[in-house]
Amino acid sequence: MSELIIHNYPQSPVAEKVRVALGIKGLTWRWVEIPRVPPKPDLMPLTGGFRRTPVMQVGADIYCDSQCILRELERRFPEPSFFPPGAAGMPWALSRWTDGELFKLAVMLVMGSAVDQMPAELAADRARLYLGPDGDFHAVTGDLPHIEAQIRAELGWLDQRLATGRRFILGDQPALPDVLAYKIVWFIRGRWPGAGDFLAEFPALEAWEDRVKAIGHGEHTELSSEDALEIARMAEPTTSAHEDPRDPQGLSRGMVVTITPDSDSGDPLVEGVVRHVDRDTIAIDREDPRVGLVCVHFPRVGYRVHRA
Ligand SMILES: N[C@@H](CCC(=O)N[C@@H](CS)C(=O)NCC(=O)O)C(=O)O
Ligand 1: does its nearest atom lie under 6 Å from the Cβ of 95? Predict the structure, then answer.
């Protein structure tokens, strides 16, 4: 199998979620550092326009969105599982909370507190992504106590759960819920000046945070973005063709579609030809002069697919 390549940057909490997931599975991988804001000229040939972080590459197969990446890691490396016995399904439902409401609150807390210290270009880019076309983190600053109250109550739920004596959220072994929740605590701890005092209210959560941190990120070495493109160029996609007769949108192999996050975030459309479609995933073929044929995977949940 080709190497696992993660396109990311150190400050990304969503990338940290994937890095810890790689640690849980004890994997060896390559780190490609990408810019924090567009343009991302060496990522675009792989993703066809998807600009979010992280992206996973395995040869000429490209996985967009951490949901898609985690699902693929579980498929390729089933042990140790992200889903201990009895936990199937539920962690994905939990991810809608951690990746949705809770992450947006954390972004508003961190960026609303730091908007005047951040590079203007970064603040404007993230405001567009997370707050919509007229978004501005200055508008959030007056609301910070409310936002903090929301996060406090929601982290309190995790603390209560962990105070029941479990080492990790589901039991004695780390699993998907741990990486989902950890990225929030890691982000707040690392980027919000009030975090030390705020998190001290949650001793069980802090003890768990140390345990998750100790898992590490597996083993990784750096790879240049040019070398990653060359790896894609030399490889062929290995994704199997697949159709789903029950697909509610009637998506099938060979159709030209566009895909984008289902939010008012200004994310570009990615266009390609359906190779694989099922309930959870859609994978499209696209050609780019720098890499030839690549197969780009997206989750179904949270993404809108249009027939072009
Ligand atoms: N739903 C996506 C969200 C990814 C996301 O929003 N990541 C942030 C970084 S933590 C991002 O893309 N920021 C803009 C960028 O890196 O260009 C996922 O789970 O992968």
Answer: no
Is residue 99 lining ligand 1, measured as CB closer than 6 Å?
yes
Q: What Å distances lie between residue 284 and 8, 10, 299, CA to CA?
A: 22, 28, 12
DSSP symbol at 101: I
Domains, the chain: 4-80+220-307 (3.40.30.110), 90-215 (1.20.1050.10)
* Ligand 1 nearest atom to the CA of residue 11, by list position: 10
**Residues 4-40 pLDDT 10s:** 999 999 999 999 999 999 999 999 999 999 999 999 9
**Phi and psi angles of residue 143, each rounded to the nearest 5 degrees, phi first:** -100, 5
Residue 1 has pLDDT above 80, yes or no: no
Q: Is the pTM of this model over 0.90?
A: yes
Q: From CA 57, how far away is CA 60, in angstroms rounded?
A: 7
Strands of the 256-261 sheet, one edge to the other: 219-222, 28-33, 4-8, 55-58, 61-64, 292-299, 281-288, 270-277, 256-261, 303-307
Find out whether 83 and 168 touch, Cβ atoms under 8 Å: no
Instruction: Decide whether any atom of ligand 1 lies within 6 Å of the 47 Cβ.
Output: no
8 in ligand 1 pocket by Cβ < 6 Å? no
